Amino acid sequence: MPATTGNVALALLANTIATGATLVALILAFGKISGAHFNPAVTIADAIECGIRWREVPVYLAAQIVGGILGTAIAHTMFGLPLFSLSHHARCGNAQVFSEFVATFGLLSVIWGCSKLRASLVPFAVGAYISAAYWFTASWT
Question: Does residue 1 belong to any structural domain of this protein?
């Protein structure tokens, strides 16, 4: 997302809506192909639960890293930014680490809870959860 000089809350809201909607679409599109593993924590948790074989984990992780790098380059190209750059906003410290733990724990809880009870709703639940997590974690600060 390009830097804004306007209302930060409105920019965050737009970002959360776009992210949540995109996640729903991507999970629906790729769920049957790869399990829609976009997050290494999801892949590792799935392997722990015997959902995928451990020998498949490195391939998933490599695809996630390459996908993240490629996605960054594509987004930067769309907004006319350099393909790669260092962040000007440091994200570090105990609050940030704890916030990421809470967000990841919640994501896994949503996936496991929904997949056991109503698997068809997982894409929508994940999109909604990630949209909300933007607001209740320190991830965006």
Answer: no
The whole-angstrom separation of Cα 82 and Cα 73 is 8
Tens-place pLDDT, residues 104-127: 999 999 999 999 889 999 999 999
> Domain range spanning residue 18?
8-136
CATH code for the domain in which residue 87 is found: 1.20.1080.10
Gap between the Cα atoms of 103 and 106, Å rounded: 5
Whole-model pTM: value is 0.84
- Residue 36 near residue 27 (C-beta atoms within 8 A): yes
The first and second tokens of residue 102, run together, are 């809470």
Run of H or E residues at 26: helix 8-34
Number of domains in the chain: 1
Burial class (CB in 10 A: 0-12, 13-18, 19+), 130: buried
State which H helix or E strand residue 107 sits in.
Answer: helix 94-117
79 near 2, Cβ under 8 Å?
yes
The vertex-69 CA angle with 17 and 51, nearest 5°, equals 75
Could you tell me which of 31, 65, 26, 24 has the C-alpha nearest to residue 46? 31
